[in-house]
Structure formats: structure tokens, C-alpha cells
Amino acid sequence: MENKLIVALDVETAGRARELFAELREVAGAFKIGSQLFTAEGPQLVRELVEGGARVFLDLKFHDIPNTVAAAGVSAARLGVFMFNVHAAGGGEMMRRTAEAVREAAESEGLAHPKVIAVTVLTSASAATLAETGVAAEPEAQVVRLARLTQASGLDGVVASPLEIKAVRAAVERTEFLIVTPGVNPSGAAYDDQRRVTTPAAAVQAGADYLVVGRAILGAPDPAKAAREILAEMQEQ
Ligand code: C5P
Question: What CATH number belongs to 5-234?
């Protein structure tokens, strides 16, 4: 069975990221590089980890005009990442053109085809956050709407909070549509910015394909041990 654990490398330096990769490479299924580490260390670190054997999820949440996001997606494919994401709120044309451009580049350049997924509603957002940007919907309804748009635009899946997994599964037709879930803690305990959290076992049972875990592993005295415990919990079903 594929390892569903993605460790978020939410650290400041390439040096720390390399240490964590060395410690966790046998335990984690993949590593997520987000805007903090990417802005500090750039694409060279992504190439280095990919060349070292890491599966990398590039979490840069592209959101721009369709032409720009499509081109950024091609750049991500050239880095060799196994997955990257965009914001579904960028719209159907942005997503369709990105999926097409990545497919064409992968074929013409002989690249591995990365999964392209979309962020629906940030897990930190509440109904009030949506309202202040002019979206008059509850987060779950907006997540479902954007998940349907993502699927219709030909992407491979979405990022969704644990509490939205079931609603997304029910709303999309393709069973292979990926759901990537942050907001997971072994104890079910929440950090300040996690409004909705669940345990690893509950997230997998609800239908998550990948779980993204950061602080519960990075902040543990023994990160590899913490990661192994989370993997064991994911298999408890
Ligand atoms: O909370 P944790 O440290 O496990 O977060 C890991 C990743 O999950 C972060 O890099 C972030 O992208 C994502 N996350 C999220 N929503 C939150 C908290 C974290 O999407 N509320």
C-alpha cells in the first residue's frame, strides 16, 4: 500500500530541511515544500531533494491569470515534483489551462506527470473570512462547489480539511479524485490556527488519500518516532 504520510517541511533553512529528510526518508511517503522554505531556499533545494529520492509536494498554491499559472505549473513539472497545487478560486479556465499545459509539457519533454490539485477553502477560513471577501457561503458549501469545479476542470484532486472529506467524496464522481488533508494531529489536539482537526485514523477512514503533518512531527523530540506512530495510527482501521 502506498505510504500516505506527507511531512510538511515548514522550516527556515535548507540545512534543517536536509536533516529532516535524512531522518524521515524511510518513514514519510513524501515531503511538502511550502512558501516559507521555497521563498527562503528556492527551486535548487527542491531539485536537490528530488534528486536525493524524495517525492516532493510543492505547496505554492498558485493563483494568477491562467497563462501565468499554466507556465508556473510547467516549471513545477520540470522540477520533478510529484504533486503541486493551485487555488481553485482562480477559476475553471486557470485550472484547465494548467492541467493541459502540464500534460503537454510532460509528454513532449518526457517528464513524470505531476498530480495537480487545488486548494478549495483554506482550513483557517471561517464563514466570516469568506464573507469579508464577498463570498456569501458556509465554508463546507464553498468547498463542495470548488471541488466540483476542480474535477470538471480536469485536475487530480483537492486539499480539504478533515471535516470536509466526506462532503467532497460525496460531491465528486471520480473515485480516484485525490483528497489531501492537513489539520491532522495524533492526539486530535488543535494548534491555534487549526480550526478543524482530526486524528490520522479518522482522516483515512473518512477517505483522505494523503495526510499532511507538520508540527506534530517537526516539533517532537524524536521526529522519526513521531512519524512512525502517526503511520501506525493511519493503518488502525
Ligand atoms: O499544523 P501542521 O503543522 O501539521 O501543518 C502542516 C501543514 O498543513 C502546513 O504546512 C499547512 O500548509 C497546512 N495547514 C493547513 N491549515 C491549517 C494548519 C496547517 O492547511 N489550519
Answer: 3.20.20.70
